[in-house]
Amino acid sequence: MEELRAAVVPGMVHWASPNFFAFFPATNSAAAIAGELIASAMNPVGFTWLAAPAATEVEALALDWLAQLLRLPPAFMGRHCGAGGGVILGTTSEAMVVTLVAARDAALRRAAAGRGGSGGLLPRLAAYGTDQTHSTFSKACRVVGLDPSSVRTIPAGAETQCINAHCYLKHCMQADVDSGLVPTYVCATVGTTSTNAVDPIGAIADVAREFGAWVHVDAAYAGGACICPEFRHHLDGVERVDSISMSPHKWLLTCLDCTCLWVRDTRRLTDSLLDTNPVYLVKKDAAGEPVGSTDLKDMQVGIGHRFRGLKLWMVMRTYGASKLQQHIRSDVAMAKMFEARARDDEWFEVVVPRRFALVCFRVRPRGGMTEQEADEAGRELMARVNRTGKAFLASTVVGGRLVLRFAVGSTLQEQRHVRSAWELIKKTTADILQGAGTAGIQGPIH
Amino acid sequence: MEELRAAVVPGMVHWASPNFFAFFPATNSAAAIAGELIASAMNPVGFTWLAAPAATEVEALALDWLAQLLRLPPAFMGRHCGAGGGVILGTTSEAMVVTLVAARDAALRRAAAGRGGSGGLLPRLAAYGTDQTHSTFSKACRVVGLDPSSVRTIPAGAETQCINAHCYLKHCMQADVDSGLVPTYVCATVGTTSTNAVDPIGAIADVAREFGAWVHVDAAYAGGACICPEFRHHLDGVERVDSISMSPHKWLLTCLDCTCLWVRDTRRLTDSLLDTNPVYLVKKDAAGEPVGSTDLKDMQVGIGHRFRGLKLWMVMRTYGASKLQQHIRSDVAMAKMFEARARDDEWFEVVVPRRFALVCFRVRPRGGMTEQEADEAGRELMARVNRTGKAFLASTVVGGRLVLRFAVGSTLQEQRHVRSAWELIKKTTADILQGAGTAGIQGPIH
Asked: What are residue B374's phi and psi, to 5 degrees?
């Protein structure tokens, strides 16, 4: 413990600090940490139902509860209808990989049935995202063997930063079909990493259906907000998609890792990911009858499976819907406060409408300052603020311009931390613009 | 906590119980649990070096220490030579997927350079395992888009349960080349799941080199034993392979999940898995210079990365090489004790030589009993023993015959638990063979 304090802690970036406003917050709670602790001590390997029945059941229960909070259609709930359900994975990327594999194999089977063989068809399967979709999507496409040239990047609208499904997506899919490609998978994002833009899920699903493509919704961060009725409309249309993932380790007080994936039909996953069940992993009871739910190993890339469901179960059971909603609303209120200050301040502009708890702002070009100089001032502002160690910001680029990201929501954050950060930002900007001026700006930091 | 005790705990299979002899043990320790607890509380998202420098550095350090314990060649150590290094993943399957992707893309690039394009070549890449390789290997091959018909299953020797590289592997690869396939990847296993067989790594590497195929060593379980000099010879030849993975969450007292992957050249991973580095993830210091080590996100499927290195660092720092070796040796001694009793007993036979802490035994067909009846007696023995709740065994099939697996090594196990299990097995067998006889045997349990 002495070495830990002396050698490790000083080299950390403290994601748990209330002065952390970079990336997205990794929220946490006593219930989640206790859940992780107990899971680590029990240490079951829940690859099959038989290997740890309660581990599988708790995971299925937690997923169903969260699906209810999100008002997902019953089709996604393992304990309601027939075929739906889900699995808790480590990252959104894994959720993309397993659904991509399922969509890929389904497309190959369909093509094979129509043409008497799927040989050589893989390079002709096309997948679709936007220039605002997380870069991990194109990486996931590469992992499952799609041809990089068949992974389409649809331009997001300049105003909305989201996709115009009926226009661009449909046009792109039709053009691909005309040139012999097979539209296979669309990734829609609810709350993009850069600016929290929201793709129109329903419209995308309608277009994709015409072409038989799988629609996956990545709601990693903003999905957390959708447990509040006032944000739920961002998921409208989800009843027509094939799968959706969101990560309670981002905004729902559950420590890493916990990415929930729901699919309308788990058989579409297990068709591709069923492990061949060697003798030591078969699932039969003493009478030789199959027992238990779908084995978790058959809905993921690996075999071993940590007991991630426990912490999510404990978070929901401990705090309940109302406390979780209150937590989201408190973060959003703090972000609104920061947004109002930035919007009303002569030195700043808010670049895109704030939807959740992320404020995207920049130095406003004024008094003869060029856009380029405003970008430079923003870079210098971030560098100086981050060097103080009293607040940590990140940046992105929107429409070619540098934009600062102020992400509220670190678990210990209170209004006073947001106010202090605002004052630090304001004072530092004053130093830059009134003091040394842009002439004093040093090299960029990102 | 009350609900946990009432509703979850009774439904668990207690992997931490000293009476657990099924599958492979998931060993654990106070240091590992403390490490997981602290990592959960700090909760950094170590996707890039900049996002949590100490998280990346501790992981690299822990991997290097473990590589030293295993006497891996310096080429695999990130802090020694230039290009080597590793990453801690969740499962062996992920280690297979990332190395398969790297090998796949390298083969496609080579083929493209030689033929002016890689189009359509993917279905012709061939990968090789044996009928004793874990089934997750063929699943990993499917995930990365290899054609299932190009994933070869080499028959393992009936005696050794391992591959004859110079004969079968070489012959199979040559035949594939002759028919236009491209040998791309070989998975060698040190300690197969079924019987702990060990493939000859050096011989496989020599053959694979002739064909330019990537060799990966899966030492998930038995790699743990190789920290003891008396077992290290099982890794002979590792200096000629491309990558090796082993899981301290199996035998090195580190709770789930912790699979260590080392590669000779990390650039071969990052060539395929480099995330495109959106603006919010670039790694430059205030002067715009690149900083830090390889980002962990670029050696794995996902982006988010738990602080898994901490628990492994704490396990090694707390117990040291000698205590870890002592733990392995104590388990092996207990397995030897069980093996001797089974071998010397008229009712049992030991089916394959015990190499580590797994004993594969079965009821010996005697006194007019057929092989089939011996299998049935074994099934009934396992069913009755498992129903007592006083010991938990698993089974496998070797050479068409049912074999019981007695895996020693659950963390709390002592000689008395092994003795009790032996006595229970002995008494139950007596009941079956002398009492009700095989006529009383009920349905099979696996």
From this structure: -65, -40
Q: Which residue of A94, A303, A316 to mutate against B (max B Cβ within 10 Å)?
A: A303
A45 and B93 within 8 Å at the Cβ level: the answer is no
The answer to whether residue A280 is catalytic is yes
In angstroms, the separation between the Cα of residue A281 and the nearest Cα of chain B is 8
Token pair in block for residue B151: 């994933």
Instruction: Report how far residue A354's alpha carbon sits from residue A358's, in angstroms, rounded to the nearest whole number.
Output: 6
**Per-residue pLDDT tens over the stretch A165-178:** 888 999 999 999 99
Q: Which domains does chain A have, with CATH numbers?
A: 2-22+320-440 (3.90.1150.170), 44-306 (3.40.640.10)
The mean pLDDT value for B240-253 works out to: 98
Scored b (16 or more CB within 10 A) or e, B140-150 reads bbbbbbbbeeb
Q: Which residue shows structure tokens 């990390």?
A: B266
How far apart are the C-alpha atoms of A111 and A442, rounded to whole Å? 57
Which one of A57, A133, A135, A402 makes the best mutation probe of the B interface by having the most chain B beta carbons within 10 Å?
A: A135
* B299: closest CA of chain A, how far (Å): 12
Residue with tokens 């997923």: A63
Positive or negative CA dihedral for B365, B369, B371, B373?
Answer: negative
Q: What are phi and psi of B140, to 5 degrees?
A: -60, -40
pLDDT digits (tens, 9 = 90+) for B61-102: 999 999 999 999 999 998 765 689 999 999 999 999 999 999
Q: Which tokens sit at B69?
A: 């314990």
| Strand pairing report for A348-350 and A125-130 | unpaired
Please give the Cα distance from B367 to B396 (Å, whole number): 24
A123: nearest CA partner in chain B: B120
